[in-house]
Amino acid sequence: MTALHEGKLAAACTDARKALRHAVVSGHLQDEMAAAQLLADIYAASGETTRAARLMVRTGTTNKLESMLKEGGDHYIDLTAALTSPQPWQRAAAYKAIAVQADLVPDEQADQIVSRALKEFADGEAGRTQEGWVLPQVWHHALAAAAALIERVDPACVQRALLLLEPLLEREPGKYRHTDGAHIQMLAGVLRRHDEYGPQAAQQLTELLRQGGSVAQQVPHLATDAIQENSGLFRDGLREMTLTDLWAAQLLTIVGEDLPADAPMVTSSYTTITTPLEATPGVFALGTLLADQALLVRHCAPLEREAAAAALTDRVLDKQQPAINRSDAINALTNLSAVLSPQTRSELFRLAMECARGEHDGSALDDLTGSAHPLSAVRVSLGSASLAVPGIRLAAATCAGDAGACAVEDLAKPLLNGPDPDETAEIARALTWLGNHPAAVPATQLATHPHPGVRRLAAVRWAAQTPRDPGIGTRLATDPDYRMRRELAAAVAAAQTADATLAPVRDILAADPRYCVRRAVAFVA
Question: In the predicted model, is pLDDT for residue 279 greater than 60?
Answer without folding.
Answer: yes
